[in-house]
Amino acid sequence: MKEIVVISGKGGTGKTSLTAAFAYLGGKEIAVADCDVDAADMHLLLRPDFKESEDFYSGETATINQDACTLCGECALICRFNAIQQTDGRYEVDPLNCEGCGYCARVCPAEAISNTSLRAGEWYISNIKTGGRMVHARLGIGADNSGKLVAKVKKEIRKIAGEDNSPIILVDGPPGIGCPVISALSGADFTVLVTEPTVSGLHDLKRAYRLVKKFKIRAGCIINKSDLNVRITEKIKTFLHAEGIVHLASLPYDESFTESMTKGETIVESSGNHLTEIIVNGWNKIIQLL
Hints:
By secondary structure, the protein is α/β, with parallel strands linked by helices. Helix content is 36%, strand content 28%. It folds into 2 domains: 2-47 and 128-289, P-loop containing nucleotide triphosphate hydrolases (Rossmann fold, 3-Layer(aba) Sandwich), CATH 3.40.50.300; 59-119, 2-Layer Sandwich (Alpha-Beta Plaits).
């Protein structure tokens, strides 16, 4: 079983659109994971049925027992995050501000405060239109610990891939280089870096590859909208050559990407689209490298 993780140094490069296209090309033998839990949108293109779902708990939040509270205000005074406010004659906890440190519970003379597990989101196992299965998730509004939710998605997709005898796990990773990306890269066999020819695109590509390099993962790169700035596209190609990163494909700017998304389709589903051949060739290169 091999694991491919698609990432980008910044959002908006076309990472998810390309991952969905690869999933469609791979068909039912590919197990798919959407690890971009902060802004999950693979479901828009792969039509999951949300067959199974489960709440995800991570971290804690303070809860005030109003019957036991004496309204002394000690909790509000010591809370450094301004998570406890007096409203209509009672003290209440704002879960978006609460860090779950538990200090308010320690200082409460009436022992009216306790910490409870925080529901940070949901994760799902779905059948998708390729005939395979996908594990995906949604982080709750204002919730943190997205790295832990990514780890949960990765754990479940490996289990699913084992059950379905899937030879390849395809992961849509988060953008950037933070904790969620590190979690998504864990255990990967190959990384696809998606970039675009802008100054920030090249800068973020270099940052993302430094992270991939630390994991000692082989990498390839797809340059999206490559014809928008030929000079920077050439700089990207020079960087790829210098670092030994496989240049998988260069995609020209094409509004059919957007048209496909509005239909809820991957770009390779559109008949007669000239981008399809380029993407298919890029996918075949990845399979050969694996």
